[in-house]
Amino acid sequence: MMDLNQIYFIDDEPHVRMAAQQTLELADYVVRGFDNAHDALEVLKDSASSFPGIIITDVRMPDMDGMRFLPRIQGLDRDLPVILITGHGDIAMAVEAMRSGAYDFIEKPFSAERLYEAVRRAMDKRRLVLENRHLRTALEDNGTIGPILIGNTLPMRDLRRLIGSIGNTDADVLIMGETGTGKEVVARSLHHASRRREGNFVAVNCGALPESVIESELFGHEAGAFTGANQRRIGKIEHASGGTLFLDEIESMPLSLQVKLLRVLQERTLERLGSNTAIPLNLRILAASKVDLRKASDTGAFREDLYYRLNVMVLTIPALRERLEDVPTLFQHFTLDAASRLGRDAPTLSPAQLARLMAHRWPGNVRELRNVAERFVLLEGIDSALPSPPGDGPGATSGSAGGTLVDQVNAFEKALIAQALRLSNGSVRQASDGLGLPRKTLHDKMRKHGLERTSFLDDGD
Question: Which of 107-121, 145-159, 362-376 has the lowest average pLDDT?
């Protein structure tokens, strides 16, 4: 994560600069003082668009005052937050400057708390702007952000470690998880971690293909193999040779095809429909299921021999309700992604809105959260874009939020603290200021929830 903690402070009065610098450095900010606006502009002229911080400037200064400085900064980067320091007689001027794009103004004399609050909010805005730009660049360069497994909870850290451990092998893998948990993202992560990453990644949703065409889609056919087969067709399995084949919802595959798939797994060859020639294959097979294949094989809905062939290496993705602490991080990622694609600003969640996200059970898992984030961006952050509070929806029950009230409060508290630590890049001092907690209290709560400061340095694991 980008280390946003830099402040350029411009004031021609040395005692004001020194006092503000000492105050801000106590909050772990890196402060550089300037006695005039020209010098600050000179330093920023080549780096304003990537500057990891904000500007604070006095309005009344000789030569170039804050009102002349503001449009010059906006010419370098219109989204760089500028906070104005004003005397009592300058408030009308400061209000006019805010209409012109200044982020905020602080009236002299100001308290440390007022300064901290203005800086914290400005830093949050700057962080969103820079992350938005980073995502937009990734989208433009690659057409996609690529497979990203987001989350700092223990199950997600374990999952990433396991992918790193087996990714560069040719072992076939069974991926288990509820609908919407991100099984294809895990499959793509395995592909990108392997030496097959330059080969094709071929994804097939077995549940979306009609039984009448799935065999031809998977195995291909020769011309004349059946009515309408006018020319040879290379199937998905053969197309994946040299790379990775991902079979999603494998529980939906017809039993007759499961026999043929088992042969492909065992012999690494296939025969196209209408052909007797065995074609050698060099591929890795990843399969995914949202149901317990062991139980399905016990009832005869899935072949037992195929189950045991697939069950060598299993990755299980936790449901989102089992890792609620990851909701704020995931939601921010999805809002930034949506804002980049839609050309919108990414709205910021209020504490009350975050509480609604944390209270929701997320039956659709990460896919549902992504859809909510996109709606949140489209509707510019209004409450109606979010899931209804527990008890407000049709048929809601007192238990719809999941767990007891104490469990929900603890999960929400843990998520808020984790979010504050992530936004402050692991700085307990900044996190305690943002949460309005004494540092000792925050340390106690971190121990209570098993949160380590080091896990949030550079986004942790």
Answer: 145-159
- Supply the angle between the helices 439-449 and 405-423 in degrees, to the nearest 10: 120
Return all residues near 426 (Cβ < 8 A) that are at least 6 apart.
453, 454, 455, 456, 457
Nearest CA among 48, 38, 105 for reference residue 80: 48
Among 38, 55, 189, which residue's Cα sits nearest to residue 122?
55
Nearest by Cα to 42 from 52, 34, 50, 30 = 34
Q: How confident is the model at residue 441 (pLDDT cuts 50, 70, 90)?
A: confident
Tokens representing 391 are 């008890």
Structure tokens at 275: 């052909």
The C-alpha atoms of residue 345 and residue 365 are separated, in whole angstroms, by 25
SS3 16: helix
What six digits make up the tokens of 453?
A: 């400061």
Q: Any bridge partners for residue 314, and if so which? A: 174
Whether pTM > 0.85 for this model: the answer is no
H or E segment and range at residue 297? helix 293-298
In angstroms, rounded to a whole number, what is the distance separating the alpha carbons of residues 80 and 74? 7
Average pLDDT over residues 270-277: 89
For 52-86, what is each residue's pLDDT tens digit? 999 999 888 888 888 889 899 989 998 899 999 88
Return the structure tokens found at 221.
């056919």
Q: Alpha helices of 220-279 — where are they, by DSSP H?
A: 236-239, 255-267
Q: Which of 343, 336, 363, 349 is nearest to 419 (CA)?
A: 349
> How far is 93 from 86, CA to CA, in rounded Å?
9
CA distances from 61 to 67, 118, 397 (A): 10, 21, 61
